[in-house]
Design goal:
Elements lengths: L2 H20 L10 E3 L13 E7 L4 H15 L5 E7 L5 H14 L3 H13 L11 H9 L5 H8 L2 H17 L6 E4 L3 E3 L4 H19 L2
Parallel strand pairs: 2-3
Antiparallel strand pairs: 1-5, 2-4, 4-5
């Protein structure tokens, strides 16, 4: 005879938690995100919501973030376009940015992306500083790219133009470092942990979606 009252009490006890879990994240400007003064996407939106990750291969935080970010990006809705963009801050940053853009142009960026982090931060099979195009060519050879083809690509005009575009985007959005997430070129995501960063990114994606449908 006590089963029904106990069941009702259990449901009442759980209902606030369920409501809380379903409630949208309340974003606070300055804490969870910054508005970008000169907004604009990295690439034409074409009906998509853009999430740019500004990263650096030599950045240890990016290396630790990558597995979690990769799993998150794989579950994004179809109306969201996730775009990794290497930070072109000069020096060694530019060397590895060129490497990524070359790999992207050659169609091996997705397969080699995480492995590049591992090569630098776990295996130490590539130098962090003063990496040469020849050393990078050896790395990408494992992904079916002939060294001479890689060298021609990394020295080409297309890669140089992409490098300039990445540098201009970083300067315009004023990313403070890496890793950084930018939604629609309008919101710079903030967070005190990787989990918070992704949670706030989800909320900003929802915000961008609602703004699009107004």
């Amino acid at each position: 005879m006590m089963l029904m009252p106990r069941l009702m009490l259990l449901l009442l006890a759980l209902s606030p938690l369920s409501t809380l879990a379903a409630a949208p994240v309340a974003l606070v400007e300055g804490t969870d995100y910054e508005l970008i003064e000169q907004p604009g996407p990295y690439a034409p939106l074409a009906g998509k919501i853009e999430v740019v990750e500004m990263f650096g291969y030599t950045c240890p935080h990016c290396a630790r973030f990558e597995p979690q970010l990769e799993a998150w990006a794989a579950k994004l809705p179809k109306d969201v376009r996730f775009t990794p963009v290497p930070a072109a801050f000069g020096g060694v940053w530019d060397s590895f940015a060129r490497a990524y853009f070359s790999a992207d142009q050659l169609g091996v960026a997705k397969r080699s992306h995480r492995a590049m982090f591992e090569a630098l931060h776990e295996k130490n099979s590539l130098p962090m500083q003063n990496v040469s195009p020849d050393e990078l060519a050896v790395f990408y050879k494992d992904y079916g790219v002939a060294p001479e083809r890689f060298l021609a690509t990394i020295k080409g005009d297309a890669v140089e133009q992409k490098l300039k575009a990445a540098r201009a985007f970083a300067q315009r959005t004023k990313v403070p470092g890496t890793p950084a997430l930018v939604v629609n070129g309008r919101y710079l995501v903030k967070g005190d942990s990787f989990e918070a960063l992704l949670r706030n990114a989800d909320a900003l994606i929802a915000k961008a979606r609602s703004e699009r449908t107004r």
